[in-house]
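Dear V.,

Thank you for sending over the compound details. I've combined the ligand you provided, adenosine-5'-triphosphate, with the protein sequence from our construct and run the structure prediction for the complex. I'm sharing the raw inputs here so there's no ambiguity about protonation or stereochemistry in the SMILES, which I know was a concern on your side last time.
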Amino acid sequence: MTSSSPDSPAPVVPDDGRGGVRVRLEGLRRSFPGGASVLSGLDLDLSAGAFVALVGPSGCGKSTLLRLVAGLDTPEAGTLSFSPSLERTRGTRSPIAYVFQDAHLLPWRTVLDNVALPLELAGVAESARHEAARTLLGEVGLGDALARYPAQLSGGMRMRVSLARALVTRPRLLLLDEPFAALDELTRNRLDDQLRALWKELGMTVLFVTHSLSEATYLAERVVVLSRRPARVMLDRTLELPAERGPSLRAEPGFAHELGLLQRALERGDTE
Ligand SMILES: Nc1ncnc2c1ncn2[C@@H]1O[C@H](COP(=O)(O)OP(=O)(O)OP(=O)(O)O)[C@@H](O)[C@H]1O
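Below is the predicted structure of the protein with adenosine-5'-triphosphate bound, written out as structure tokens.
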């Protein structure tokens, strides 16, 4: 990451508060000591602003892939490229945000101050960071919970705070690793809708790992099904579903058709 000085050139990525980044993985390899190879030359190309779900059998390497894309781990071979490049832009943009299954909130901070934390770390003045945090918390339906502490929130509310905190820096790429898996179905469906609305508004590229084929079909524009390790792409499908998603979609024949295709690819990937 680079920081900008007053006379440095204009940022590579314009700080316009929205937009995604193209992510290309070529020949990515990763194995762990004593274990079999997890990724043995994986290729994937995510267009800027895409919403892609990643599914695959347990232990096939989905989290490993996400960690490599996030720069939390290094591949043994292969390349990972971003376009436009992920130079940190002038000010407060953090190019990549990561949401885990556990919300990881700081218990001694209020909801507002948890969400404002990335901006505080970037040196943003209190009034500006609180305003940005308040806006996002309003968008995830927590406008009246700003002064609460994490212990006073339900699991679904904590995940909303986590999502708002990830988006407060307007990232170019949002990585989510089974973020709503621990929630009940109704809450999960609501959060899926909020995530899609935020994606439409902000236009970031989203890579979403889930075990639920139904959630992948409902949320994503494109679903990538991986085989058991070493992970191969069993199916890379752009879903033929309307851009507008809503609860009635789950009952439509097109939804069942897509779900069936994913299910069969997942089963093949688990046995072949
Ligand atoms: N740091 C590590 N050290 C050793 N082995 C690891 C490490 N991280 C992951 N693995 C192994 O790599 C394989 C893939 O793990 P990963 O967590 O990426 O799978 P996953 O597809 O996300 O699984 P799940 O769906 O169950 O969350 C597993 O066999 C796991 O035990």
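A first observation: The longest strand covers residues 22-31.

Warm regards,
I. M.
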